[in-house]
Amino acid sequence: MKYPYAEFSTILGHIVFSPVPREEVQKYGEKFGENPCGTGPFKFVEWMHDQRIVLKRNPDYYGHKPYLDRIVFKIFDVEQSGFSEFKAGNLDDCEIPPGQIKRAKVIYGDRAPIEPILSLYSYGFNMDADPWGNNQNLRRALNYALDRKSICGDLWEGAMMPATGIVPKGIPGFQKEAMLYNHNPVAAKDLLKQEVIQMEMVFHPLL
Fold first, then answer.
1. DSSP per-residue codes, 58-83
2. Which of 133, 170, 182, 186 is 20 to 30 Å from 66 by CA-CA measure?
């Protein structure tokens, strides 16, 4: 490297640093993402968009050989459809839809584990489109209006926890209170009122 970078060994764990053959990238170009290859225990076989992805066992894998001959990932546009297929015995594994986590835990026990993962779910603002780009008060109002504790506790039944910043817990750089926004409907309404006044001034400059 051209200069010391203490986090280098950490970022090497990111998926973009997975080793791939140069000739494969050159062969597929922009379609490389649809023809993945790597050094894992399974090989890519088929990708039928909106239907399934198929992998088969890699006999040349350097580690412990997989017990499965192949894996089929079925694709559903609605999460509930996948869960229904699982309950019917047509899937070995699936995501549990929100609102059904506690019930699934009672029915399936250890087959429905709830464990922490290093991930973060968020919604972003399109700063190039109205009404978000030029309306800071509107963006702030939405942050105050969202009740993250209720979403995580009631909708997700405690399977998720409110984010405190852009870095999830367990990753270097995590801060317990990096985000200042908490559920505050009064502050949200006040900011919306300010935004309405500003918009009225824009449309009625003579007032």
1. -TT-SSSPPS-SEEEEE--SSHHHHH
2. 170
The SS3 of residue 17 is: helix
Return the structure tokens found at 177.
Answer: 């209170």
3-state class (DSSP) for residue 94: coil
Per-residue pLDDT tens over the stretch 126-185: 999 888 888 899 999 999 999 999 999 998 898 888 888 888 888 888 888 888 888 999
**Extents of the domains making up the chain:** 116-207
Q: How many angstroms separate the Cα of 60 from the Cα of each of 22, 42, 56?
A: 19, 9, 12
Query: How far is 182 from 201, CA to CA, in rounded Å?
Result: 29
Under CATH, which architecture does the 116-207 domain have? Roll (3.10)
